[in-house]
Amino acid sequence: MRSLRQLGLSLERIRSALSRSDSLRPIFEAQLAALTTQARQVETLRSRIAALLDGHTAESLLSTLELMSVYESYFTADQLADLRSRAAELGTEAVEGLKASWLELVGQLRRHMADGTPATDPRVAELSRRWDALGAKFTGGDPAIQAAAQRSWEENRSAISTQIEWPEDDGLVDYVNQARAAR
């Protein structure tokens, strides 16, 4: 009984197993599955903490943690894993290249907004297509992930804007949505 207790089984489960004539195998299989799940959760947490510590200040750590909490309430664990996996597959250099392309695209769209170019203008429509294509590189074109990202943005503009250094009320996302609807 002591050796079963050392395997993490509760006294109640041990008592129940010993009172039956069936095998302990199903209990050990269930215990192994629970420990495997727990090990994955610990590894995910370890990876997150390591990534947070990599080059962050105390202030940016808190901001990043806040944003992670926002994301976790909109994306499923599988979707977050998919996003992380896609970023890892792309590699740091490609991700940085996509970010640079994104910033260039944002600059072009903001210039059109400042110039009063209607969202229905073909040039803006083309930029909105590029916006969607860049987004698909990160989301894999998964409609559920795209919808979660949209909901997250709509409900948390302030927190997200602060984290990515984006002016909160500049209307750019609405402008792109209008261009998208017009194409």
From TrEMBL:
Location of the HTH merR-type domain: 1-20
Annotated InterPro entries: DNA-bd_dom_put_sf (IPR009061), MerR-type_HTH_dom (IPR000551), TipAS_dom (IPR012925)
Chain coiled-coil ranges: none
Name of this chain's protein: HTH merR-type domain-containing protein
Organism: Lentzea roselyniae
